[in-house]
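As promised in the previous annual report, we have extended the structural survey to additional targets. Below is the entry for Protein kinase domain-containing protein.
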Amino acid sequence: MAITVSIWIGVVMFVAIVAFLAVVFYCVCTHPACLGGVMRSTSPSQHYVVVSDRQIRNATVERFLWEIRHEKPFRFTPLQLAGFTSGYSTQLGAGGFGTVFKGVLPNGLAVAVKVFHGSLSARSEQEQFMAEVGTIGRTHHINLVRLYGFCFDDAVRALVYEYMEHGALDAFLLGRDGRAAGLPALRDIAVGVARGLRYLHDECQQKIVHYDIKPGNVLLDAALTPKVADFGLARLVNRADTHVSMSCVRGTPGFAAPEMWMLSGVTEKCDVYSFGMLLFEIVGRRRNFVDAAPESQQWFPKLAWAKYEAGRLAELVAVPDGRGTVDQEVLERMCKVAFWCVQQPPETRPPMGTVVKMLEGEMDIAPPVNPFQHLMAPPVVASLWTTTTRGVNSAMGNMIETI
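The corresponding structure token record, generated without further manual editing, is:
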């Protein structure tokens, strides 16, 4: 009797186990989301899921932008990118690391697709890709370009950004629209860039140093709102770290801070220096260095200082269409900020939070120190050495005559 009861208990347990497994199998087959939840918790590759054209098409632009803002960037396939860009038919620009094409998502949202050059080494391409996704992919600010998604495939490595109607700031400043813009509008552009940098330096969970601030890396939307772009050289920095060691030169000549070329420890103040040089180009609506100009006007920052010392800053700015007058207060404020930002010692440059306040008129600006003094006067040590050398040569000559 005891054996019979044990057999029945075993049968019942076996049936219960089989039934449980059948229920689990049914749930997995009919509810893929359950399986997706398990995979997302165990597989890191599921952190970025490929989004289909149908999902994008069925969502409104507002919903799409909300998801971009609050979720991770979407992962696209090479086939999708080819469709978005109509076979990469409209090129917007090209740089050292990639070519940018205009595209349109299935929901009608215009985008810019940056495709990395195939000629880049695998290491360089990966560093650029991870730098951009790892920095701009986790930031949300009106003055930073928005990353919608990416493609990381053996055939294509690309980034999908919001489309900026007015393009890069350098082209705007040198074009008809830039020449027609008044100083207040240019000041607003400068303030927007400064706010974006303030956010990167002071308001992110981890400090982000851009390392390549220049007019070509600032984009303008339809309302002329500036957005800092191209984070390929950017780095995340722990706030406890006072300096960052550099193993190679980063940045663009003419905008990179002097300490960048020394491969020594640098701080976020290198971005401040670059912003100062960018501010000079905004004020002058020209390149900082123009080889074809007369020698005294070739380098705009030095020309600006000479005009500032002479009290003739207004001569730097051409009034649009010859009408009206130059806003002297705005011009002087912009130039003073630029002079402070490009000081040689990094510790004498203001933080970006202070730069924003000075540009907005929320605080007075102390008279700046000449940041180009080392370029205008002969070094004292060299003069002493020359004097000493002449003295030694004279003494040697006297000794020879005596002999």
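The chain has two domains: 47-162, 167-375. The longest strand covers residues 98-104. These points will be discussed at the next consortium meeting with the crystallography subgroup.
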